[in-house]
Specification:
The protein has 463 residues and is α/β, with parallel strands linked by helices. It has 14 helices and 23 strands. The chain has 2 domains: 313 residues, FAD/NAD(P)-binding domain; 138 residues, Succinate dehydrogenase/fumarate reductase flavoprotein, catalytic domain (Flavocytochrome C3, Chain A, domain 1), CATH 3.90.700.
Length: 463
């Protein structure tokens, strides 16, 4: 992905604000820029907007919202920021953590009030690392719905989203970005701009970069969007920008195998467990689904069985992915432990001992705390593997989503958000707090759009 001087022949078209990527981050940046009076063009490599968002549950953590208040939940950004830093062992830039924790609530309410997205709070189970219930989602609890509603909001505002156009070259004049070259069905197009927002996600689809920066997960199933090729990082490095935490990522240890369907971690947080092919548990599942990827991949054949019961399945059915997994037969049912052993192929004696050893109200040998109803028939089980979902490192940015140079200053008109920018998940996988990916996409995307609009207004008139 080269960076080149401004072409002598100029550009085919000029727009005040150009946004690369039409996932949640890019679409929110476009809405925010328009609210600031900016003129926007969004370009997307795929035939339709989707990105990593469409593969997710579409849940966004936010503190101090009216949705929490209606549920009687006392929460605030300071508590949220502390949870983010606790999960990442304090490895995140404090300014970025404060920006995201403070901006999440207003962003959710802005999307609900200004653009009609019908958010509600997930109230019936807890996510690892969150000290309050603060996950907000749309009715289907699916990222595809989030993308579709954001696209509809953009269309209602008359925003231009041009698909099947992949950005291949950035043009510069000193530190200032002057435009991009797009590769499309009719050949190359050169678009000039006053401000550029990189919302083109991370680099999980670039196997060479994954092997270089996160070798521990290089052999796992890639469950993200194949368009995540690391363009933003490559461009940034060519521009002399600073990168941060390139070894950080979001894994997931609960992907139905071989069906390739995400199984909500609610099946674990509500009381389920994971066992290996020997019928034995192997870790403290309450740590989180990101670190679960490595834990599962370390088991024989990189496979585990997630075991829960009918009560827990009823909770998980609020997620479309879970209903899809049931519809295709990935979720197996059993009326007894002997039946469970039969449908999973696990050794009955070991499985019986494992389930009998689960504490009813206490802490087990792995350090996991159990409370609430114990597992009881009828049981449910799903065969799962570990996967890489999303990279969490990226371009270092200011609180205004401006890309930082190596010397700490900011490039004047280049913004990055979502997977293109560093997240708040520390330096590895265990620092990922549920919802961190969309947290960065939504909050930094909104900030990037606002700031890009202000930058475009101050740009001198072109001759």
């Amino acid at each position: 992905m080269p960076v080149a001087p401004t072409p002598p022949g100029g550009f085919d078209l000029h727009v005040p604000i150009l946004i690369i990527g039409a996932g949640a981050c890019g679409l929110i940046a476009a809405l925010a820029a328009t609210d600031e009076g900016g003129e926007v063009l969004v370009v997307e490599a795929d035939p339709l907007p989707a990105g990593s968002t469409a593969l997710s549950a579409g849940l966004i953590p936010a503190a101090g919202t009216r949705f929490q208040a209606a549920a009687g939940i006392d929460d605030d950004p300071a508590r949220f920021a502390a949870d983010i830093q606790n999960k990442a062992k304090g490895e995140n830039p404090p300014e970025l953590v404060e920006t995201l924790a403070t901006g999440a609530g207003p962003a959710i309410e802005w999307l609900a009030d200004r653009h009609g997205l019908p958010f509600s709070l997930v109230e019936d189970f807890d996510y690892p690392g969150h000290s309050r219930r603060r996950m907000h989602g749309l009715p289907s609890r699916a990222g595809r719905e989030l993308i579709d509603r954001l696209r509809a909001a953009c269309e209602a505002r008359g925003l231009d989203i041009v698909c099947n156009r992949r950005a291949v070259t950035l043009f510069r004049d000193g530190d200032r970005i002057t435009g991009v070259e797009l590769q499309g069905p009719d050949g190359p197009e050169r678009i000039g701009c006053d401000a550029l927002v990189l919302a083109c996600n991370g680099y999980g689809g670039n196997r060479e970069m994954v092997a270089r920066h996160m070798p521990a997960i290089a052999g796992a199933l890639w469950f993200g969007h194949d368009g995540n090729r690391g363009d933003a990082v490559t461009w940034g490095e060519a521009l002399g920008a600073r990168t941060l935490h390139l070894g950080a990522y979001q894994g997931h240890g609960n992907v139905a195998h071989p069906q390739g369907v995400l199984i909500s971690w609610a099946v674990i947080t509500a009381g389920g467990v994971q066992v290996n092919l020997h019928g034995a548990r192997f870790w403290d599942e309450s740590q989180g689904y990101s670190e679960a990827a490595r834990a599962v991949m370390a088991q024989p054949e990189g496979i585990a069985w997630t075991i829960f019961d009918d009560r827990i399945a009823a909770i998980a059915r609020q997620f479309q992915d879970f209903k899809d997994a049931e519809a295709i037969g990935a979720i197996r049912g059993a009326d007894s432990v002997a039946d469970l052993a039969r449908v999973t192929g696990l050794p009955e004696a070991a499985l019986t001992a494992t389930l009998a050893a689960l504490p009813r109200d206490g802490t087990d040998a792995f350090g996991r705390r159990f409370s609430g109803p114990p597992l009881a028939p009828p049981y449910r089980a799903v065969r799962v593997t570990g996967a890489l979902f999303h990279t969490q490192g990226g371009l270092d940015v200011t609180a205004q989503a401006r890309v930082r140079r190596q010397d700490g200053g900011a490039l004047p008109n280049l913004f990055a958000a979502g997977g293109a920018a560093v997240g708040v998940s520390g330096t590895g996988d265990s620092g990922y707090l549920s919802g961190n990916g969309l947290l960065s996409a939504v909050v930094l995307g909104r900030i990037a759009g606002q700031q890009a609009a202000r930058e475009a207004r101050t740009e001198p008139a072109r001759p």
